[in-house]
Amino acid sequence: MLEDIERIIISKQEIKSKVKELGKTISKDYQNRNLLLVSILKGSVVFLADLIREINVPLSIDFICASSYGKDAFSSGKIQILKDLDVDVKGYDILIVEDILDSGNTLRYIIEMLQKRNPNSIKLCTLMNKSKQNGNKIKCDYEGFKIPNEFVVGYGLDYNEKYRNLSFIGILKPQIFENSKYIRSDFL
Ligand code: IMP
Ligand code: MG
Questions:
Q1: Is residue 94 over pLDDT 70?
Q2: Which amino acid residue places its CA nearest to atom 21 of ligand 1?
Q3: What domains are defined for the chain?
Q4: How much is the pTM?
Q5: Among 78, 105, 107, 160, which residue carries the largest CB count within 10 Å?
């Protein structure tokens, strides 16, 4: 697996200290609130698992699974909810936890959907943001790293369902893409 990586762009240590910092800020902001972390499957589970252990106020977690890409390189813009939340979000302060913000299509759809369910508030926490290049215009309340417009894997993020278990964020060698039929996985 490691031999497929061209270079590491965010190390395990950098991720660790950033997650700690985000957890500290979130803990301060959500005192005496009714915090519900909504993790977007599957990419954000590793981030969620680490982040909740850096937050020291009471919280609940729930999951949404959405697919936004077909077997093409580009976002189709069509979002499908494959798994919805279990909880009724009324009265909750929702913090959406995302691995990476790219076109923003997935999140725009999910935010709109959750707003209609009348929670107390909705904010967004993303580990990485590619937004500058893609102009997704989604406001991130908590943001880990701004990254260049490159396809990254590791720490939850996959390429064809692989590499999620890497403890760093890296870029794949070009021949990995060339040998593969698909550019992106179906399930994010
Ligand atoms: P968006 O709808 O274009 O913002 O896509 C966001 C989703 O696409 C993220 O939650 C990721 O699951 C996936 N994604 C976007 N960029 C990458 C990447 O560089 N590596 C792995 N997955 C990515
Ligand atoms: Mg995702």
A1: yes
A2: 157
A3: 14-147 (3.40.50.2020)
A4: 0.91
A5: 107
